[in-house]
Write a structure and sequence with these properties.
207 residues; alpha+beta; 5 strands
Length: 207
């Protein structure tokens, strides 16, 4: 059956109307997403501009507590310096009878100090009154800028090391070590020589 011109135009108009309705429905489906995205972007930008403005003003007119996380870095304290462990790691304590006295302004360590046979204050006073030593067997591996007084008393079966280290900051480090009846006195002295620099740097790290 042949369609008239009016029928053809009416059919075209109906098709165009259907297409327009479908397009409108599609837009209605996508419009909510666009609205949500737009609102989100606007909120983000508004917050950013507000923060920038407040930071420039230094939060002067507002009471705002910013609880930022505090990062604590590990620090070495006199309590965390385990000198017993450091000594046993470096020195054969079965090689003779050892006595130690280590003293600084913020650290004090004593082990068998009764074997020194004189008060510790006298020991410190004696080494303090000595001139700067020329012997540096035990202190030769310490920094050159230090003022060092070293005194070694040695007999057949024992030795006594008296050591005073003065830092440029005027801090003093007293180290007294005595070894009695060592089966190998040379080994004891060699181990102590290597131990002194390690002890020095540990004590410095306490500041």
């Amino acid at each position: 059956m042949v369609k008239t011109k009016d029928e053809i135009n009416a059919q075209k108009g109906k098709s165009a109307q259907l297409s327009l309705e479908e397009t409108t429905k599609d837009k209605q489906k996508t419009n909510p997403k666009i609205v949500y995205y737009s609102l989100f972007i606007i909120l983000c930008l508004s917050s950013l501009f507000w923060l920038i403005s407040e930071f420039k003003n230094g939060f002067s007119d507002k009471k705002i507590n910013l609880n930022l996380p505090q990062i604590k870095f590990p620090q070495i304290s006199s309590n965390s310096l385990n000198l017993d462990k450091l000594i046993s790691k470096s020195i054969d304590l079965d090689n003779g009878f050892w006595s130690f006295y280590v003293n600084t302004s913020n650290f004090d360590y004593q082990k068998n100090t009764d074997q020194f046979n004189i008060p510790l204050s006298v020991l410190k006073n004696n080494i303090s009154n000595l001139p700067e030593s020329t012997s540096n067997y035990f202190s030769q591996n310490l920094p050159q800028a230090l003022n060092i007084k070293e005194n070694l008393t040695q007999e057949n079966d024992l030795f006594l090391l008296e050591l005073l280290i003065e830092l440029p900051s005027n801090k003093q480090i007293f180290i007294f070590v005595k070894n009695v009846q060592a089966s190998d006195l040379t080994l004891a002295k060699t181990q102590l020589q290597k131990f002194i620099p390690d002890l020095y740097w540990q004590l410095i790290s306490l500041d």
